[in-house]
UniProtKB/TrEMBL annotation:
Belongs to the 'phage' integrase family. The keyword DNA-binding applies. One of its GO terms (molecular function) is DNA binding. GO terms for biological process: DNA integration; DNA recombination. This is Uncharacterized protein. The keyword Repeat does not apply. SUPFAM superfamilies: DNA breaking-rejoining enzymes. It comes from the Bacteria. Keywords: DNA integration, DNA recombination, DNA-binding. Residues 1-25, 525-550 are annotated as: Disordered. It comes from Methylobacterium currus.
Amino acid sequence: MEDALAGTAWAPAPPKPEPKNRSHKMPLHDNVVAELMELWRSGELKGTTEITDIRHQGLRLRVQPRGPTYFARVQHAGREYRVRIGRADAWSLAHARLVCTAILSHVATGNGVPSEEWIELKRQAFLHVDARKKGKTADAGPYVPEVMPRQAPVTTWSYAQACEAYLSWAQAECSEGVYAQATVDNYRKTLRCPTLRAFDDKAVVDITPSSIAQEVEELRKAGKRTQAADVVRKVRMLWRWMRTPDRERASGIKTTDMDRLKAPRLVGVKGRQHFPPLDECALILATARCGVLNPAVGTAVQLTAWTGQRRMSIVTAYRDDFEPWDGEPGWGLWRCWHRKPSGKKGKEHVIPLPPAAWGPFTAYLAWHRLEYGEDQRWAFPQQRPAKVGSNRPMGHIAEDTLTHTITAIPGSKSSPHDLRRGLSSTVQERGGVHVALVGYILDHSDETETVRQANGMTRRYTEAELLGFKKPVMEAWERFLEPAAAAAVLLPREELKAELVRRRAEQRGVDPEADKARLRKVAAAQYAEGRTHRQRKRAAKDAPAATDPG
């Protein structure tokens, strides 16, 4: 900074020895500020200098490598404050002098030091006045309150801190079996969504129901009614948790105001249900087994189409849950579980797999053992490798992976849950199978009174696997689904693969070309450092050979 100022006509000669920081008193001019801005942009500013404007009381220009910045010096409650006005590239000298006068008046009238928001409103008002003088606008301009004092820092939880505490508590409850991990993940996904992250730095005591309601309304207008309702439900749960006596001191929440928050009604839910015809189910199955998808993801989609089970049951299947059916050549059994809040517990739900389903699945299991070894328990392991140095074991594929893959298939309008409706509708309408028998496969307890009574009794009072009742359902489903899948017309392999990639990118909202460039850059960096999945896998295989004395 000393070298930069020494070459200007207005800078006084520095004393000997030259100090690191200097202070000057001089009249500020627009050309002085412009010259300083030019020096800053060229990177010639070094050290820190503060210039006092002798033409305007209290105004300072602090010159530093981060950029020249205007400040106001004020005395309040026996202390001297430096109130930041703003950078010199955002504020003109005339506007800085005007707001400096306003700051001094704000303090002198007993209203304390003004907040940064008030200073920014002042700047917007000055810019609007200039625009009106030039005829560029005719509106009223922003509203600026007469006073807006700076608030004392809040010592209670911010929204981000409250979420962290709540989710830690929920995770601890999950470890004791109170909640399922999927429930905790759902809480986290909702409470940390982009809509609510805007409140991260705000104290929870300052977050009002109206501010949350405004964000919920924006979601509703965007057509995201379900997400809006979920946000309301989880926010109310969080506030109820925070106002308990043991957390009241940390959160500062003592009222029940957030209970006034109302979720938008979910209208037409039943009308939006999709009942995929047989041809659509067959198209999904044919695409899943044609080889364009990752083997684990493709086989998971096939299992969904064949059995109509829920996403969580599919993705959390263990490899050892599958076995041949003794006495029924070509058939297999999948020992699934009935739904439980805290995971896979209770009596097994056994589903027979017909030959058309069991044959490809046995081939997949053979590939699975060669690819992952005997230690991998998940039938459908996650496909993105763990981070280098991470000790976390590989998990299973995500539920959303199943949903996004099925909805990305050209010609598919179905979600994984819709395939349950496709199976049930086809075997009842075309195969004449009774709804009660279909209920044994779908493991559903509230479709009809008949299903509820039958499933409720068998779950509680018998150990029978009821395969004799389940086999006719799967025989009927195989009789219709397999010929339709064999007759399904797919795009050529490369076109189909490209269309799946395009639709997945569209779902994620990314630019395919920009994403390709980003992935190429990441892959090149990982390859140069020897951190790619194949390099790490090869190194792990070569490690025992390197230590072999033979």
